[in-house]
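Instructor's aside before we start: the two examples that follow are unrelated to each other. I chose them only because their records fit on one page, so don't look for a connection. First example below.
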Amino acid sequence: MNVDKTALILVSSDPIFDQRAQKVKESLTQMGYSVQICGVKRHLGAFETGDLRWEMTVRSGPFFYLMLGINIIQKLRKNPPTLVWACDPDTLWAASLVKRWKSFFLVYDSHEWFAEVPELHGKRLKKWIWNQLENRGARTSDVCLTVSNPIALALSQKTGRTFQVVMNMPNATSFEPQKEKQCIIMYQGAINHGRRVRELIAALEHAPEWEVWIAGKGDEEESMKSWSKTLHYQHRIKWLGMLSKSELNHATKQAKVGYNGLDWQESKSYEFSLANKFFDYVSMGVPVITAATPTYREMMDQHRVGWLENENLPNLLKLIQEDKKAYEERVDACQIARYIWTWEEQWKTIQAWIP
């Protein structure tokens, strides 16, 4: 490894659980970089990591983003690396500010259409501020990336910069998926507004042979848990919390299907998204029930790895349970797609852009 080539990956999430940041770190390391992810300690517990997790007394809002930016600026000014990989506008603004007087190669990686997330719906001033910060930061960046073709088109038009696409696909795997499956629906990811976790749980009332396993945390976690305790089928809801990558893979392989629901009509960011979990389910050989957005329809046209959620969810679960041939066809499609939809293939598209 060339120790003169150093890279910092900047995130506002917890580095330990940010899958895309971890994959970028692995790929840059293979290119000869000494890499550290800088993020926020959002989950308690002792984790072995060489990454930097800043302790933040505030977890959200303007003061959080200000303090995060100050930490980033201090880090970059003290010892500027060869390459800075800024994820989303909430880290980009600080990195692009320092780039004005420090010399480093800046990559902007937009994990979503940040200004169009549901949390900013109807908040015109906040949306305008984030759009301005993103536009200026993107113009300062040497390379701009995002996760799907529609978001790349939208951000290219908005910022005047060309955005490359690196989809959230997993690393190539070689293990054999588990064949005998119980009726388990796996949900992994944030338990937040618009992810349809409540609707997934509610579907169990009319799908008595199914269980739901939920791996993750989020803003609606506590209210969701309290509500689920009032249900007569609460014993069929399993809350797994935050899991390591190996623990998450072990749990997911046991599921019959994965779930990737979205209230996508509420948000352009959701409508154009391509989530980690969609590809992760497929890589485990687990067919997926996913939102019927144009982006997921396009992926299903390539490989029919699951079902679009455009009908009643309990009816869909009943169909999956009864139509064994259709289910096996989708398992077979997962087996094919998991060798094609890989991070390694995605990385090839931008590797030539990295110094």
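Example two begins here.
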Amino acid sequence: MRTTRYWTILIGVAMLGLGGCANGTDPGASATTAVTPTTQEPTTEAPTTTASESTDDSLIYVVMGNSLLFSTPAVMHAYRDILEQDLGAAIDMRDHTVPGQFTADFLRKLHTKDRLRSDLAEADVILFLIPNGEWKEPGYTIMGEEGRDPTDCGGEDGLDCLRSVTANYNGMVELVFEELVTLADPSETAVRAMDYYVFTPGEDDEATVERTGPLWRASQEYVEMVAARYGIPVAQVFDEFMGPDGTGIPEQKGLVSADGVHTTAQGTELIAQMIRELGYEPADLESPDTVVVTGQYAAPDEYIDGDPTIIRATDNGLSDDRVNGDYEGLMEIEIFVDGDRSTGLITMPRVTITNDGGTWEGTATGVSTWTTSEPEHRHYIHHTLLGTGDYEGLQFKYLLQGIDYPWTVTGVIERVDG
């Protein structure tokens, strides 16, 4: 990030709080194009860059994602206008959106595209969503589009093809955030993200939403969980658009156009205001009541393959003795293969760490990924454990990750209400 006076402005605005937000009421014109279940067709064309002329006094605003950000009316433009209004700054917008982008392509650009990497390093504000163009094909199959047979998706519920791509999406979400924070430190740059609502053929397709909604919700919750580890706020568009049970039809609310994908003027304004409400304060993962925990887990004492898998380990080498002790986890893994990438969805319904002071107990979730290129095997398991005994009123949240043992641990012990 550049060192400019505007970071002082960002912090000042965050401390003062934002004023009232006007709510958009124009639902926009309905599209007349054929319906699609996901984003636009992938393209190799570079996106149109709409950045204003950069000056030493301008605020650099980088946007990454797909057509949900740039299609008219555009979320990225609405948020740019909000930045100008709230911060009183000229905005130099660096547009790196690409229509129909696949998650793997998005990740590859983060690693290799020099201009993008340079813009992220200079950014004062970053807005992004992690695209999911690969979800289109299973969406077509599930809905029987283009003469397809929905049973080809596989699985007892006919959703395995979508379950596979969402599993691999989770694995790449981990890699996206890992790379992003090496380019833009969230404690110095206002990094903001948004998640997705369900894409449907139209406002009458309650059946599709009811069937696919839980998978969409799970993938968006995974994005939020990983983002939280880096202190990056996420506008929870899924919850707002889909309603409390996740089965709402945003087209019926006037938030999404008739194509079932892109937002109306009302939907665009709502998303922009949701991002605005995230504020501008930089990430601060530490507080007086928070203790950072680091260290390593050695290879388990017992590791029994199968479903479920029992993992047991003892005397783990973590930096805080309160969370060392006897570790036991009940693990369930569901494996999905998608081209050269395989992903194991990890669910741990019971995890305990026990020592003389008490027991930490909770759950964990994560992914293991395999690819045909190095590194062959990576694991990410997010734990949330509550303390008992001497640790009553404390929570231990951490990420266990690695390729070969020992695995690394990064997390915090913090106080929890109640």
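The first strand starts at residue 59 and ends at 65.
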